[in-house]
Amino acid sequence: MAAVPNDTKILEYQMFIAGEWVDAEDGAVSEVVDPSTDTTIARVPKATVGDAERAVRAAREAFDHGPWPRLNAVERGALLRAAADRIRERADELARLESMQMGKLYSEAIVDMGDTAHTFDYYAGLVQDSGGETLNVPGETMSMVVREPVGVTVGITPWNYPMLMAAWKAAPSLAAGNVMILKPASVSPLTNLELAKIFEEVGLPEGVFQVITGSGGEIGDYLAGHADVDMVAFTGSVEVGKHIMRKGADNVKKVGLELGGKSPNIVFADADFEAAIDGALVGIFAGTGEVCSAGSRLIVERAIYDRFVGELVSRAMAIKVGPALDEDSEMGPLVSQQQLDTVEKYVRIGREEGAKLATGGRRLEGRGFYYEPTIFVDVDNKMRVAQEEIFGPVLVVIPFDDEKQAVEIANDTIYGLAGAVWTKDVTKAMRVVKALRAGITWVNTYHPTYSEAPWGGYKQSGIGRELGTYGLDEYTEVKQINIDLTDAPMGVYQRGKEKNVAGSRRVVPLSDRRPFREGENKADESWVQFCENCKPGM
Ligand code: NAP
Ligand code: MG
User: Fold this and answer.
1) What CATH superfamily classification does 50-259+468-481 receive?
2) Is 164 in the pocket of ligand 1 (CB under 6 A)?
3) Could you give the residue range(s) of every CATH 3.40.309.10 domain in the chain?
4) Could you tell which of 48, 115, 191, 237 is best to mutate to test the pocket of ligand 1, judged by most ligand atoms within 8 Å of the CB?
5) pLDDT tier for residue 16 given thresholds of 50, 70 and 90
6) Which ligand 1 atom is the nearest neighbour of the CA of 247?
7) pLDDT above 50 for 528
8) Does ligand 1 have an atom closer than 6 angstroms to the CB of 389?
9) Is the CB of 54 within 6 Å of ligand 1?
10) Residue 290 in contact with ligand 1 by CB distance below 6 A
11) Angle (CA) 359 362 365, round 5°
12) CA 151: distance to chain centroid?
């Protein structure tokens, strides 16, 4: 349990349900800890299932009867843009809060705030530009396709990019006319609560964007299984993703999953040496390695292996690890004691498996959850440290002899999120990128990504895509509309026609009826029977 120094003011937060700032119905709270100092910085409500039910009721009301889905795209876009402006105005303060609650460097958090604002701006614009289509079908028919919102959407997000992951979900969801309940990771809910304040301030209608803070195993689970929730968009671990898919099956929910990775970063001998070294370091140590797309498996051509590893290790040893808000820090702490324990466990496993520890492998002395940049060399891709996601500053380096082997090693994983290749040979780069079974790839760089491009994984790294036009599509249902242009009857069932006055569907009066006779055509008679129940004007 984190200690509370006397001089630290603890921030008290409420959560945002049905347009109101509220405590949990039973008053329970949970603490938010600054991993740079291992001190409690805030308390947030720990929601009950009753609170979650109220959020679903409010969301249902907002979607089924409220104004939001009925506004046009221009009006919705204007509100999202206003929120984006407010995020930019408050970027410094929000970035500090992000750094404090989950330990990423301020220099990284401030970039996240810019990206967050841009994501809202991007979808505000995109939705105005995204219509349906008309189809060239045979016959005298106008056939078209329109997109409509899915309904009540739930976002369940991880702690590594709290604000950005919320934006990747909320921006396309709200732009498309859905409503959203956001359940942030328990360790890092603060900036998402600030986001709810921003939406309240710019005038988003009640129940359109709600933030509920509480345990994933309880609240997240309840929302994922709820029959009145139409879609769950989840980012997090493979294990929880699978669970959410199973829960969603109960009412055949739409499910979007952005899960883990163990992404290959392939360096050929003909790569620019300095750029590749830099890319390998950024690939694994940015965000303290707590990045789903981290280049956590470095696959290096044997011809340069020794020189490359030597330089890499000396550069990693020089990385300054320190508090997230310290300007000198080059790598922040891990998010929590639990994550530190996970990293320590994997380093132990790596040693036991016979991987060679070239640098790192220890937590730093003192308060806070700091761990050394760590590199295992001469790793076999079959080892657990090469197959399982560690989600920390631990790199495994694997040598290869030729292009074919590099691709085999790269794809020998249950994951398929990202991958990169470093070479000056353009055709080789394209061959390798084409062969990678992964959704996000880079050539001669690592990590840059754009709101305009689809984000998501192959294999067990996920289902569906966030961002870009693809991300907007996920938050829509597609409806086909077919309009007959002739006014003519389809003319399939003609036998009873003479009993009818054209177009009027007159009911044959009872006095004109006679009982069935043997061998009589029953189809005619049954038509009369059916039409007896017709109401005038049908
Ligand atoms: P996690 O344990 O799966 O948690 C993610 C979210 O799910 C949290 O909000 C958590 O709530 C909630 N949750 C936990 N159990 C749940 C359940 N039974 N039902 C519904 N929700 C539940 O993942 P994490 O440790 O926070 O994040 C790390 C993982 O996320 C890594 O595997 C990483 O690769 C992945 N990730 C992927 C991407 C991507 O874009 N592909 C991006 C970032 C992270 P609590 O916090 O209350 O437990
Ligand atoms: Mg924390």
Assistant:
1) Aldehyde Dehydrogenase; Chain A, domain 1 (3.40.605.10)
2) no
3) 264-450
4) 237
5) very high
6) 19
7) no
8) yes
9) no
10) no
11) 130
12) 17
Give residue-wise pLDDT tens across range 32-45: 999 999 999 999 99
- Which pair of tokens denotes residue 236? 């997090």
pLDDT exceeds cutoff 50 at 413: yes
Task: Say whether domain 264-450 belongs to CATH 3.40.309.10.
Answer: yes
Ligand 2 centre and the CA of 102: distance in Å?
4
What is the number of the ligand closest to the CA of 333? 2
- For the CA of 261, the closest atom of ligand 1 is 34
Residue 82 Cα, ligand 1 centroid: separation in angstroms?
29
Closest ligand to the CA of 33: 2
Distance (angstroms) between ligand 1 centre and the Cα of 306 equals 37
Measured distance CA(193)–CA(200) in Å, rounded: 11
**Buried b or exposed e, range 263-292, using 16+ CB within 10 angstroms:** bbbbbbbebeeeebbebbbbbbbbbbbbbb
> For residue 113, how far is its CA from the centre of ligand 1 (angstroms)?
21
Active site residues: 258, 292
Q: How confident is the model at residue 525 (pLDDT cuts 50, 70, 90)?
A: very low
Return the ligand 1 atom nearest residue 168 CA. 40
Question: Would you state the pLDDT for residue 495?
Answer: 80
Q: How far is CA 489 from the centre of its chain?
A: 48
Residue 465 phi, psi (nearest 5): -135, 145
Question: What are the angstrom distances between the C-alpha of 414 and each of 87, 184, 265?
Answer: 37, 26, 16
pLDDT > 70: percent of the chain? 91
Which residues neighbour 506 within 8 Å (Cβ) at sequence distance 6 or greater? 499, 500, 531
Kindly report each contact of residues 136-144 with a partner whose C-beta sits within 8 Å and lies 24 or more positions away, as own/partner: 137/482, 140/484, 140/485, 140/486, 141/482, 141/483, 141/484, 141/485, 142/482, 142/483, 142/485, 143/480, 143/481, 143/482, 143/483, 144/480, 144/481, 144/483
Q: How many CB atoms lie within 10 A of CB 476?
A: 21
